[in-house]
Amino acid sequence: MRSHGSVGVRLLGVLALLALAPGSGRAEEGGWIDLLAASDWGAWKKPTGTWETAGDAHPDPKNPKRLVGTPGSGVIVNGPIGRTTNLVSKEKFGDIEAHFEFMVPKGSNAGIKFEGLYEIQIYDSWGVKTPKASDCGGIYPRAELLPKYHHIDEGYPPRVNACRAPGEWQTLDVVFKAPRFDSDGKKVASARFVKVVLNGQVVHENQEVPTPTGHAWTKKEPPQGPLLLQADHGPVAFRNVRVRHLSRDTSR
Question: What is the pTM of this model?
Answer without folding.
Answer: 0.86
